[in-house]
Amino acid sequence: MGNHIGHEEQSQESGPLSSESSSHKESLLSTIAEMDLAFAQDRGSDVSDFFAEEARLMWPNNEDIVGREAIREAFVGFVSEYTTDSWDPKREFIEVYERHAYTLGSFIETRTTRDGGPTEKVYGRLLEIWQLSSDGKWEIIRLMTGRYADTELLE
User: Fold this and answer.
1) Is the distance from CB of 85 to CB of 92 less than 8 angstroms?
2) In this predicted structure, what is the pLDDT of residue 105?
3) How many alpha carbons lie under 13 Å from residue 58 in its C-beta half-sphere?
4) Domains delineated in the chain
5) Cβ–Cβ < 8 Å for 64, 58
6) Residues with Cβ within 8 Å of residue 121, at least 6 apart in sequence
7) Which of 79, 41, 75 shows the shortest CA–CA distance to 55?
8) Are 34 and 137 a contacting pair, CB within 8 Å?
9) Backbone angles phi, psi at 149, to 5 degrees
């Protein structure tokens, strides 16, 4: 059962998971671990496979990126510019419902530009909204990231 913060009124469709449905949370956590590994290993195309067909990616200082294929292009472009040295996400809040889930957290990403530029340490926050597809696969329908501190340049 997910953490619960101030959800006084829930519809039956989107109510918290019952204890017998905890396998949904387990499968979501497994999916998140797979996605994090793909990101940490600079597999941009694989990361996009975790998004729904009409998903939205909200990156800082960019307009929304809409659709799995556009998101694929964005992640492939990202990993062509940077190599991920470390990826440390902390999802402090995970709320799982029958067909949807929400995660809220922060991350520290250390990355190096592939053109020999500086290594950067990026401090950010993330909000993920997931849906369970008809075939039982968790997919992101919205991902928003933002910065909570300036990017640190490392020597």
Assistant:
1) no
2) 98
3) 14
4) 21-154 (3.10.450.50)
5) yes
6) 108, 109, 110, 151, 152, 153, 154
7) 75
8) no
9) -155, 165
pLDDT digits (tens, 9 = 90+) for 72-124: 999 999 999 999 999 999 999 999 998 999 999 999 999 999 999 999 999 99
H/E element holding 143?
strand 138-147
Q: How far apart are CA 125 and CA 147, in angstroms?
A: 6
Instruction: Report how far residue 47's alpha carbon sits from residue 75's, in angstroms, rounded to the nearest whole number.
Output: 7
E strands of 10-137, at which residues? 51-58, 65-66, 82-96, 100-113, 119-132
Task: Report the C-alpha gap between 76 and 31 in whole angstroms.
Answer: 20
d(CA 40, CA 47): 10
